[in-house]
Amino acid sequence: MKASAAVMPAIAWMVFAAPCDAQWRRFGGNPEARAATAMAGEMLAGHNETRARVGAPPLTWSRELAAVAQDWANTLMARDQFNHRPGTPFGENLFEVRGGSVSPAEVVGRWSAQARNYDHKSNRCRGVCGHYTQVVWRATRRVGCGVARGPGREVWVCNYDPPGNVAGETPY
Fold first, then answer.
1. Are 129 and 164 in contact (CB under 8 A)?
2. 87 contacts: CB under 8 Å, gap ≥ 6
3. Which residue among 49, 77, 92, 161 has its CA within the 20 to 30 Å range from the CA of 61?
């Protein structure tokens, strides 16, 4: 009994002194991390479904690009702005909603719906189609996205590497 009594305080200290992420893993994961993982999976699936329709190879998820996208989404939210990041080496799609919220599938769906405005034969847009052409750009290999949410507003950002929408080239 004396040995077990001496061990118990040490075990209790180890459990409570463990880093927060270790505690979350023990109890089924950090809810915010699970939500981010789910968002990443849905965004990647939406992109790859659209790309498959035109024969473009699937993208992989990039945590690096997701961190850059999340940083810019947070910045846009804090500044109450909606514009592309100046000087970025990546391709970038933006989406904003006010007075509601959307799912990752809806965001990618809105960009993908621009396909109706793109004429592959002439490589021209009738209206807006640049978000779509970035989604399906054949040379792009990685994507990472982030979303910032505030009262009555969401800002979604996806970054692409290598970037698409190169003048004079077709997306697929």
1. no
2. none
3. 77
